[in-house]
Amino acid sequence: AAAFDSKSPMPSTISFVKEFLCSFNSSLKVEDVVNKAEIGRAIILLGIQLQRFSKWSTSLDYFTEALDVFRSVSFDSDSPDIVRVSKYIDSCALRNLRLVRRDSPNKLRLKNVTARTFREGVFSLELISHPG
Questions:
Q1: By the 8 A CB rule, do 59 and 92 touch?
Q2: Of 77, 72, 86, 76, which Cα lies nearest the Cα of 35?
Q3: Using one digit for the tens of pLDDT, what is the confidence trace for 83-113?
Q4: Rounded CA gap, 110 and 130, in Å?
Q5: Helix 80-91 crosses helix 33-51 at what angle (to 10 degrees)?
Q6: How far is Cα of residue 74 from the mean position of the Cα atoms in its chain?
Q7: Whole-number Å distance between alpha carbons of 42 and 23
């Protein structure tokens, strides 16, 4: 848990590695499909790590960068790498919430929220209704 502390230097390290990979990718020839594909896969892994820090917007940028790498070597839209990165891009999308009746089994309930913590504005958004 300590490794994913909000004050961790890891996100900036991830950014440095991504910039290095993108620079290396731009120095490769278009015909170097194997290395370019590996760079795209590495960028996906960096994006996944950023999601652990709740850096959803930045991870989306990484996934989009990986998609661009795969497209630059003419991967088909049904190639495993394109399918995989597309799923990660979808994971960054915000889903709509809908109002439901109070007695609905689909309602969301926050864990450890009381009127006092709500007034103070400091509470966790962890769900008790949908663990995990």
A1: yes
A2: 72
A3: 999 999 988 877 677 788 888 887 777 777 6
A4: 9
A5: 20
A6: 24
A7: 13
Mark 87-106 as b/e (b = at least 16 C-beta within 10 Å): ebbeebeeeeeeeeeeeeee
Contacts of 31 (CB under 8 A, 6+ apart): none
8 Å CB contact between 76 and 67: no
Structure tokens at 107: 């309602």
Cα separation, 77 vs 111, in Å, equals 41
Which two three-digit tokens encode residue 22? 């993108």
Alpha carbon distance 117, 48 (integer Å): 32
> In this predicted model, what pLDDT tens digit does every residue of 9-31 receive, in sequence order?
899 999 999 999 999 999 999 88
Whether 75 contacts 81, CB under 8 Å: yes
Closest-CA residue to 21 (of 10, 4, 37, 3) = 37
pTM beyond 0.85: the answer is no
**Contact residues for 48 (Cβ-Cβ < 8 A; gap 6+):** 59, 88
Angle 56-72/33-51 helices, nearest 10 degrees? 170
